[in-house]
Design goal:
Elements (H helix, E strand, L loop, with lengths): L2 E6 L9 H14 L3 E8 L17 E6 L4 H11 L3 H4 L4 H13 L4 E5 L13 E7 L2 H10 L3 H24 L2 E4 L2 H4 L6 E2 L24 E5 L5 H14 L7 E5 L5 H4 L6 E5 L5 H6 L2 E4 L9 H8 L4 E3 L13 E2 L3 H13 L1 H18 L2 H5 L1 H6 L10
Parallel strand pairs: 1-2, 1-4, 2-3, 4-5, 5-6, 6-7, 8-9, 8-11, 9-10, 11-12, 12-13
Length: about 375
């Protein structure tokens, strides 16, 4: 049976944020077909539990706490002329773990999840798949356009150095993957392996813990210390919500930063981390994704679609083949008009939500999305359990 070394910049469990949703499902797919050795960073003390849930999926795992501060990473990056993103994830314990596994085990392939982990690839070795997910250099270039002063300079530096690194990595691996065709087109020779959605888990017919409150509810979900999500909810709360009467706005997601917490008032709910986002989605009259910067396929949008919720999105919709089953708005005026139209026409909102769920069932099944990995890694689709 094949053996795979899986490198991830975050422990791929629980699948409760965009990158971890993808890494978890990829890991589970590979673990059903091969012996998997996981090396990953932990940025949450819960990831270091004696028997973490992901442990049952893999043959061995090495989890290393990531404690390096951004200031230290920035100093190291400037001293070594490398991107801050790489310096932040440089750790001798991870380097030793990768060397040790490659020396001890007959590794047939390496799966690298996220560009930060590509620095641990051996100069030569087994077949390697590089899952960039998104093109980070393009993301930092976009950040630079909206920044000024020293921040703009640092973002431009990061974009430039990452672009060089990404091209170098892509030139020496066997395949480079991205989450959408639009992202893959940014790095010639790359392939798109899209995200999927677990439509059995995200199913409006499954009972969920009810959300307390009366009246229409507009919901945004996401990791709330992530800058694009912060900017999205600030934009909606300040410029759009005042023009949408008699509705509450729920910002649902872990680690809300100070700007997000400050939004909490009579019509704005800031939940922080919740045990299960599905209850909030089930309660939503409309789900919004007013992202000004979005890369690839947004899991938050797929989850809302699977829960048969009407969705209004901005650029977050670009990577999703939604076939008209969500409303796309290009500016604040269009966004407000779309949300108000759905709130005042519940029948149309239900029909849009039902069409969205049908679309993700037909188009975004995880098994079909990840099937190309079997060919790329030379794996049999027959599962280990069946074998």
């Amino acid at each position: 049976m094949s053996e795979i070394l899986f490198l991830a910049h975050r422990v791929p469990f629980p699948p409760d944020r965009g990158d971890k949703i993808r890494s978890f499902h990829v890991l589970r797919h590979l673990a059903a077909r091969a012996r998997v050795h996981l090396v990953a960073f932990a940025d949450d003390p819960r990831d270091l539990a004696p028997a973490p849930p992901h442990r049952a999926l893999v043959d061995e795992c090495v989890i290393v706490p990531r404690t390096k501060s951004r200031i230290r990473a920035s100093v190291e990056a400037l001293a070594t002329a490398q991107p801050v993103s790489l310096a932040a994830f440089a750790h001798p314990q991870v380097e030793r773990a990768v060397r040790d596994i490659l020396a001890r085990r007959p590794i047939d392939a390496i799966y690298v999840f996220s560009g930060q982990m590509a620095q641990y690839l051996p100069v030569s070795g087994p077949r390697t798949i590089m899952d960039f997910v998104d093109l980070d250099s393009a993301k930092f270039a976009a950040y630079a356009q909206d920044a000024g002063g020293v921040t703009r300079h640092m973002m431009q530096r990061e974009a430039r150095l990452l672009a060089t690194f990404e091209r170098e990595v892509a030139g020496r691996v066997d395949a480079s993957l991205f989450v959408s065709g639009a992202e893959a087109a940014l790095l010639p020779g790359s392939l798109a392996v899209e995200n999927g959605i677990d439509t059995k888990r995200y199913d409006p017919a499954v009972p969920h813990v009810p959300v307390v409150g009366q009246g229409p509810l507009v919901v945004f979900t996401g990791q709330m210390d992530y800058r694009p999500n912060i900017e999205a909810v600030l934009w909606f709360a300040r410029e759009m919500l005042p023009r949408i009467p008699d509705v509450r706005f729920a910002i649902v997601g872990r680690a809300p930063d100070a700007e997000v917490r400050a939004l909490a008032r009579d019509r704005v709910i800031v939940t922080g981390e919740v045990a299960d986002v599905r209850g909030w989605l089930a309660a939503a009259s409309v789900v919004v994704a007013p992202l000004k910067l979005a890369r690839g396929v947004q899991n938050k949008v797929l989850e809302a679609m699977a829960m048969a919720r009407p969705v209004v999105a901005s650029s977050a919709a670009e990577g999703i083949d939604h076939d008209g089953t969500i409303r796309v708005a290009s500016d604040a005026d269009a966004f407000v008009a779309a949300v108000n139209a759905l709130l005042t026409d519940p029948a149309a909102a239900r029909a849009l939500g039902d069409a969205a769920r049908a679309r993700v069932i037909a188009r975004y099944d995880w098994g079909a999305a990840l099937a190309p990995l079997d060919r790329l890694l030379g794996l049999s689709p027959e599962t280990r359990a069946a074998a």
